[in-house]
Design a protein that fits this description.
The chain is an alpha+beta fold. It is built from nine helices and ten strands.
């Protein structure tokens, strides 16, 4: 499933093609978009943005199209004259004077008044969106101390969208490693200094992934890994997909654990457990 940085990058691409443009043509075969012909067709696109892993496209009609890619959804942006040649199921198509923007295969799509966006159940349950400019490391540190989070394992809360919106599996491994937090440790097990560092890493690693297209390590680290001939799934990360290989920080072996069937890679040396046994 695409994580927050990937959805934000998709929103950026779509915004370049649609914002300020009138939807001149379109095709909206998804049942929940039956009103699109008069609420989208002929109207200007005012904004395209993301919240966590959801996309919001707002129109001058006063309506918004909300979508969540889930596992199989995919957005494409082409010139209007390009044949998309896709075997996927088309859900929505927006045509301007120059571009064609299409959503394929997604199954969580709603058209609703813009004023009612926050009532969408997924959005209403979200914690702070890590990529929101107003969500600083200080805000995230305060959130780690929240009673609803304070006693949850790091491995659990890093995937809970009610705790931190927009994070996913690769970011979970990378953030915990960067912060030196063991996946079984809880905020209540850690010093305030460690919580501040954890919050800083939540923001920094996620923003880096957004800015670099999914790379979570500094450029010099990625280049050194590339020079060793490592495949992309390895060189772009510090520990994720690097299990059974030497840790880039300490040289000890990166290990893999599974939580609810989902993989988490970490370094036991760089991330020693501090969990209280009391």
């Amino acid at each position: 499933m695409p994580e927050g940085p990937e959805i934000r990058r998709a929103a950026d691409r779509i915004a370049k093609a649609l914002v300020g443009k009138v939807i001149e043509e379109g095709h909206w075969p998804y049942p929940r978009l039956q009103q699109a012909e008069h609420l989208i067709h002929g109207h200007e696109v005012l904004s395209v943005t993301s919240r966590a892993k959801a996309m919001l496209i707002r129109f001058s009609s006063g309506w918004t199209m909300y979508s969540h890619n889930q596992l199989y959804g995919r957005w494409t942006v082409h010139l209007k004259t390009t044949d998309p040649r896709s075997n996927r199921s088309l859900r929505a198509e927006f045509m301007t004077d120059k571009h064609a923007v299409r959503l394929w295969s997604a199954t969580d799509i709603v058209l609703l008044p813009t004023a009612e966006e926050n009532g969408i159940p997924f959005l209403a349950r979200l914690g702070p969106d890590v990529l929101d400019d107003e969500v600083t490391a200080h805000v995230l540190a305060d959130h780690l101390n929240h009673p609803s989070i304070y006693r949850k394992k790091g491995a659990t809360l890093m995937l809970d969208q009610r705790c931190f919106a927009g994070l996913g599996n690769y970011l979970r491994s990378e953030i915990l490693h960067a912060a030196g937090v063991h996946p079984d440790d809880r905020p209540c097990d850690l010093s305030e200094e460690t919580l501040v560092e954890w919050a800083r890493c939540i923001k920094e690693v996620t923003v880096r992934a957004y800015e670099t297209g999914g790379v979570t390590v500094p450029e010099e680290t990625a280049q050194a890994s590339k020079a060793r001939g490592e495949p992309r799934r390895m060189w772009r990360h510090a520990v994720f997909c690097r299990n059974d290989r030497p840790c880039l920080t300490c040289g000890d072996l990166v290990m893999r654990k599974r939580y609810a069937g989902r993989r988490l890679d970490y370094c036991p040396t760089c991330q020693p457990s501090r969990r209280s046994t009391s």
